[in-house]
Amino acid sequence: MPSEPAPPAIIDHLASPDMRFRELFEQAPVSIQILAPDGRTLRVNKAWEDLWQIPAGSALGQYIFGEYNVLTDPQLVDSGIAARLRRAFAGESVQIPAIRYDVAALGAGGPARWVTARAHAIKDPAGHILEVMLMHEDITERVEAEAAQRLREERFRSLVMATSQIVWTNTPDGRVEEDSPSWRAFTGQSYDEWKEFGWLDAVHPEDRAKTRALWAACVASTSLFETEYRVRRADGSYRWMAVKGVPIFGASGAIREWIGANTDIHETVTAQAEVVERLNREKRNAVLLAKVAQASRTLHTALASDGIAEALVSEVRDILEVHQAVVSLTSGENWAQGITAVSLSDKYAAFRDYAVKTDGSGIYAEVCRTNRVMRFTQAQLEAHPAWRAFGSQARAHPPMRGWLAVPLIDRAGKNLGLIQASDKIEGDFTEEDEAILVQLASIASNGFENARLYGSLQEQDRRKDEFLAMLAHELRNPLAPISAAADMLRIGTASEERVRRASEVISRQVRHMTSLVDDLLDVSRVTRGLVQLDTSVLDPMTIVANAVEQSRPMIEARGHVLTVDGDAGGARILGDPNRLVQVLVNLLNNAAKYTPPGGRIALLVARQAPAVSISVRDNGVGIEPQLLPHVFDLFTQAQRSPDRAQGGLGIGLALVKTIMALHGGTVAVQSDGQGNGSVFTVSFNVLADLPASSRPAVPSGASHRTAP
Fold this sequence. Notes:
Layout lengths: L7 H6 L3 H11 L3 E5 L5 E4 L1 H7 L6 H6 L9 H6 L1 H9 L4 E9 L9 E12 L5 E10 L1 H23 L3 E5 L10 H7 L3 H4 L10 H17 L3 E8 L5 E12 L5 E10 L1 H36 L3 H16 L1 E10 L4 E9 L18 H8 L3 E3 L1 H6 L19 E7 L5 E10 L6 H61 L4 H32 L5 E6 L1 H18 L3 E6 L6 E3 L1 H17 L6 E9 L2 E8 L33 H11 L3 E5 L7 E8 L17 E4 L2
């Protein structure tokens, strides 16, 4: 059954399509502008008026619907939009890109808006263009938001570049994808070198493994990454960085990315390291000072040179931390070194018995000859021309590994030897090591000098004791015959002849005692500088003749043969005749005493310009080498024979030395040892060779007194 048509009244009230289109057009939320085929505006909706703030009926609105043409609008022409619109007027449906359109350019106070648009041609059934519908989308807020975001990003990048920080971002799994200009500027890496995990190549090799492990652990646990490591700068140097990486989580709770920064803390770390090093150095110095102080106490308590040397090498090895320490004391005038003490670690145990003295040609002697410190690395030591010169035993010498040697010098600046160290356990010898060894050497030098003085005092005490015993004996010897003669005279029954002989005994023994006392007084005056010289211009041969005359009785009494040879060549000397005769008499008497009966004594005079020398040679008992340096000391005598036939107080040679010094002359002794005799030689300056100002203004044979 066909449906019934709607009642006519209802049909009459339905809206027509034109009405629906107008309502839709007006109420559409999108800005719509209907354009004629020639580009003029035919109609706009309410959204268009609101977008461009051009009310209907306004002057600008009348202009839009009158003279205005979109195809000739300067803003649309310059931006290329007009060209796109022409394609729409040609029948295409065209998407118009974003454009900033400023209504103020039309001569009114309208807004400037960012819009995109679509232009769609409306055609009749035959395809003719009836109108073009232009729909706008306002994107001003989005564009402004994007611009603001870009500005913030630019400011952030500028801030990063203006600071010392390096900023970076990583993917959730810890890889580098996004570029970091600040990282590349600092390290000099390219992006390809930096991306993924290439950034680790710029981390210091010593820090790389632990940094990689920590980063992997933080990525796995999505926990804060915080550490310090060194990064290679573009110039190749490394800088300490404080690093902090923070995980950024998305709305889902999953990590979206990592953001981190590196801050240069190199100066802070360096300063802290310097403070720590300074504290450690001060601690080491405190320990060293304590050790040096202990060494000083140890060295000061030792009284013998051997004890000082042994203590010194032990302390040096401990304080300087070396494998070798040696003390060598100088012996003789050719700078030969006799090893006094050695301290070697187990590394050099095989050489602990080495004690060969050098021959004065090696590097040891170089230190002593120059009295200068030597500090060498191994290479410097091996390059030194005096290296490996240890005499004939060079091959047996312990190997050296770097060297530090300091001379031992007494208070007068004379070399005593050296202290040396070799093979430092760690590194080469430093200035600090040198300063410490110099200080120890100074302490030890005082110790060696004090030990020698102490030994000398002991020797002097011993000789004084021997002298007192000898003096008592010498004084006692004449008392016995004097006492016997006195007893005989006291009895009163002796004959005249026996009285005469007793008187002679007493007189002779008194003269002997008087001579002993005079010798004692004489040496006392000389040693205290109280003697005065009666100087005159003398013929040395006269001095020789007078001395021979005075000594002949003793020489003949012992059955010796005396010969006098040579001549002074007419030279004259300046001196005190009595004192110079005393010098030769002492030398002749000394030869007579220490030569067995029937010996030979020779006195030789020689002119050796600018001096005259007089030598006394004998074939007597000789002098042992260890006694030679002391024969001119007070109270020194060679070994007496059991019968004490030599007699005397042992002060004659000391007087000889002192008197010769007062005359500006010298005395020397030579002997090839016990049983080989001895030679004593005195030398005088010849008057003719003296400066004119030093000659006396008196004729030959005259005299004048002068203080010594």
